[in-house]
Please model this.
Amino acid sequence: MKLGIEDFTWNDLHDDGRLQDLALVFDRFLKSHDEALFSRFDSYRFAMQSGISHGGLSTPEESEILIGVSRHLAVFLTQLFRTDATPLKTRAQRDALVARFKKEFVSKRVAKAQAPRMNAAALAPRVDALIRTVAGASERDTEYALAVTATRLLDLEREYPRGAREYSPSAETRAALGQLRESLRSSRAPFTETILRPEHVDSPEAVAREAAAVHELVDLRVEWAAAAWKGGRFEGWRSFRLPKPLVFDHFVTAERGEQIKVVRD
Model:
């Protein structure tokens, strides 16, 4: 089986001589992409082979070289085995967004929410329309769709911070919010006038109404998630699996024994 670099084959991976040849090919690959890094790595490698601890470098310097070389090695191996890294990158990006959702939305908002005023079923039509609009109707991973929706709303809220006396959102943010509100109007879900009202003028009052719409959408997502979580909706979801608070007095189970009464003469 032919590999993806020069004339190397799968059988060469079991041949010490050909592995040495492959190592030289990687050296040339590294040098062609980052000559300065290769020079440092080559000196470090020679020092290590000479028995010098850590190649004569401090721990941070050694780590920096190895991490730098590993990035090029990943590209080299991808080419060698003709591996498409795109699915892995996509999965990593999706996992990172779900982790952000857990940290910034579930832990800081939903877990601290007051008792919901409405049950999840009553809020569901609006939330479903919001998720379809932001994450797309074709997204089948419900947890990821929730993460996309929540983090998008948090990004909007950063430009309309709560408690601010005035707002200065970017033109791109205002345009994106306007498009979102238009899509929600088209969904015919029972959103409030605060969310659905179109803005026809560019004024501080219009921007304030935009902020109110963003805050209401965020609160809607928080209230629905809190109610659904209480009802067991997210059982087994990693984003809703939060660490329990530490109670230092309960680390070790203590059992009370029979008290001994001491009688003094």
Observations:
- The mean pLDDT is 90.
